[in-house]
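[job 4471] stage=fold_predict status=RUNNING
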Amino acid sequence: MALAIEIDHLQQIQDRQGLEVGNACRVLLAECLQALARPGDAVARRGGEGFVVRLGRTRADGAQAFDRRLREALQVQAPERLGFFLDVSAGWSLLRPGDRQVDDLLQRADAGRQRARAEGRGRLAAEPGLDAEAAA
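[job 4471] inference complete, writing structure tokens
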């Protein structure tokens, strides 16, 4: 299972408050992701604004549980460290039998992230063609 995560409205934050504040947002998100990762998980930065998490040993509802813990951590820590709330859009995907490379999994998670953005941001969305009930 993989998650693709991006800070909502990061470009606007940087335009209004500067690159240093944008970088502080990235650092906070990275620290929260690392703190929430469990043995067998892997966290990495992907692209300029995104992060990915490979959930190594998880149940079917693992993406939702990780997303919930991340949002709770950001809700507490962002106002303290940044002075404002920070939200993310995230997508998740499941490993399929035909996947040849990890990039196959990550591309579908990213498609879920794009869907979350299109549906209004600040949410978690499954890869296209997969819903939470199908994964349970």
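[job 4471] summary: The helical segments are 10-17, 19-36, 62-82, 102-118, 132-135.
[job 4471] exit 0
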